[in-house]
Amino acid sequence: MRFEAPLVAACGLVAALLPVACGRQKGPPAPQPAASASASPPPPLALPGGTPCGALGCTQFDSPSAAFLAAAGEGARVLAIGEAHAPKGATATSATKRFTREILPALAGRASDLLVELMMPPTGCAGTTADVRDEQAPATSRQAETNQNEYVVMGERARGLGIVPDMLRPTCGDLGGVRDAGDGAIEASLLLIARLSGAQAARLVDRDARSDVDRGKAVLVYGGLLHNDLSPPPERAAWSYAPALDAHVGGRLVSIDLVVPEFMTDDDSWRSLPWVASYDRAKLGGKTTVLRTGERSFVVIFPESRP
Asked: Taking CA 22 as the corner, what is the angle to CA 18 and CA 27, rounded to the nearest 5 degrees?
């Protein structure tokens, strides 16, 4: 299979509404009933192989690959990877490039497939594809122009490492549903991305289980910080493939978000993320930092780019 040019970065449809690059623009956590000290869960522990650095099991590592592998652990059948996309005008190296160069090689022999959240244009409905592309233009214009090409480069690099790349494969009917949704086009797009991601990844996992070569390997699903949430808020639960796919693999899905610190800004969209208050860039920016945000859920923050 040739890794062709994509229709669109899937999260591009919602970039205009979710400034943290398709991020989980979560509001402040809802108030919880008071609990006794004895009922409080223990704080998360630092990951092995790194240096403890604070709350949320904060752990620092000398390299992004060591940090990622520590978060991934052993035995995962799906690594659900979300990134904060590079915004328009960004000068720091994107998470996509860093993953491709610094992390992906460490997954050779451990991963069978890489499914990226780009949509392959289906044949037979060029007009519908063009209509959807036009509808996406206002949103995708906020992202760096290199984002989609970097995904394609990632796929080519994966193939060279023996990891089979693929994209989301909507039908003409799928794209027609987005085109015809009118004011609900963004919602339709989010639902489509979640459905295709989960269904295609599940098929890959099931195939691996029947393969003497790939049995025990992980399927990588790579996209924006929206669809890989293991514990999404109720109003966005339908946008994430992770809970259903996690059930399909018997609790062996690990969600890992990738963040470039230079892309973090002092605005509500970033401050609303529950882990942001635990990351001190001035103190931690020199190394790769991992924060544990939930059960089998992590944020990997790259070190600041050196000039």
From this structure: 55
Kindly indicate the confidence band of residue 147, based on its pLDDT and cuts at 50, 70 and 90. low
- In terms of residue numbers, what domain contains 286? 10-20+44-301
Whether residue 25 lies inside any domain: the answer is: no
State how many domains the chain has: 1
Beta bridge partners of 164: 113
Interhelix angle 172-179/126-140, rounded to 10 degrees, is 50
Is residue 78 included in any domain, yes or no?
Answer: yes
Q: At what angle do helices 185-209 and 172-179 cross, to 10 degrees?
A: 160
Q: Which token pair is 274?
A: 């529950």
Each residue of 159-185: pLDDT tens digit? 999 999 999 999 999 999 988 888 888
Residue 297 · residue 73 · CB < 8 Å = no
- The whole-number average pLDDT for the span 99-104 is 98
What single-letter amino acid sits at 278? S
